[in-house]
Amino acid sequence: MRPYWTIIKDSFAEALASRVLWIVFVVLTLILLAVAPLSITEQRASQISPFDIDLPKFISELNQSAQEEEDSPGKRVWEVTDGDFQQRIKNFANQEDRGKLSFREREKLLDGLNTILAQRELYREAAWQNTRLSRATKELLDRDPQKLSTQDIRVVNRLLMLDGFDSIRGNSDEEVHVHYLFWDVTGPLPFGKTLLQPAVDSLLAIILNYLVGTAAIFVSNLVTAPMIPHAFEAGAIDLLLSKPVTRSLLFLVKFFGGSVFILLNSTYLIVGIWLIFGMRLGMWNHSILWCIPILLFQFIVYYSVSAWAAVQWKSPIVSVVITFLFWLACFG
User: Which of 184, 197, 188 is nearest to 158 (CA)?
Assistant: First the structure.
């Protein structure tokens, strides 16, 4: 048994001596370190997103309220807006086809509307007295306004807008922020983490499919391709066969050594991704761990072809080429 264990250790030493392996290992480590600072925070929605509002209808509502004498949510919003925002509303209200607002125009209107949400003086009881307020709105209004944080003010003002305008509807009560270190990369995204996770899982599946399912397999074969040809070189095979080791078992031990080596490296990558997404993003997708045995199985299939070519031609280059041709035959 000891000679076989020595051969396995020799397989590891040969793989460790590969420059390609260390380059890939460094690249994978850098990728994990680059992704690690990502984080996600979830909080109550504090902005009106393009998905929350029917802008043409809102323009009509606000413009009509501005011309009325009695207090209303629209009248109050009009009073606290600046002249530039009011002029934009008037201009758009006079257009025959308000549905053709450009992206830039919509963006400016939304920016102006979200600026209003930060104003503590937006709420006036008389303006919303005929409006049915939601329970969440009432709970925030019952608190001391001076003790409300800036975030709370934005939340309650958004809820007041939802209650006061038919053209504004809240598709989500939560919003998420994607952070990288100390920077808010995306700003508020108009959905909760529950809706974000399927999108992240789909993106991760695509990345793993190409990074692990394709690139890692080829790199693994590049690293392990020399193991069997070198073992059966004239000088090496004579030395090994001088010990109580048969050719067939020597082949299997070398094959096993290469497979275990790739298993350890794939575990390093997959577990690293799993931990980052779980600890930093709060998305514990345990199905990611199934990539480890799947990757090992894929590698064994391709390594079998590589090992067969190595025995036939005793050349690492031929082994890699034959393996690539086999991949093309399967998926090309």
Answer: 188
Does 179 fall in a domain? no
Contact 191, 171 (CB under 8 A): yes
Residue 70: DSSP 8-state = S
Q: How far, in Å, CA of 16 to CA of 315, rounded? A: 19
Q: Facing residues of 180 across strands?
A: 38, 183
Summarised one tens digit per residue, pLDDT across range 4-37 is 566 666 666 656 666 666 777 888 898 889 889 9
pLDDT of 163 > 80? The answer is yes
225 DSSP 8-state letter = T
Q: Are residues 8 and 133 in the same domain?
A: no
Q: What was the pLDDT predicted at 274?
A: 92
Q: Residue type for 222, please? A: L
> Six-digit token pair at 245?
């080791």
Q: Which domain holds residue 201?
A: 2-36+194-331
Mean pLDDT on 51-77 = 87
Q: What is the pLDDT of residues 229-259, one digit of tens each?
A: 766 665 554 445 555 566 777 677 777 777 8
Question: Is residue 116 within 8 Å of residue 122, measured between CB atoms?
Answer: yes
- Give how far Cα 42 sits from Cα of 35, 49, 191, Å: 19, 16, 9
Q: Do 143 and 199 share a domain, yes or no?
A: no
Flag whether 42 is in a domain: no
What's the rounded Cα separation, in Å, for the pair 138 and 147?
15
Structure tokens at 134: 């939601």
Bridge partners (DSSP) of residue 184 are 179
Q: Half-sphere exposure of 215 toward its Cβ, with a 13 Å CA cutoff?
A: 14
Q: What is the pLDDT of residues 285-322, one digit of tens each?
A: 888 899 889 888 988 898 899 888 888 888 888 888 89
- Structure token pair of residue 268: 């390093």
Chain Cα centroid distance, residue 35: 10
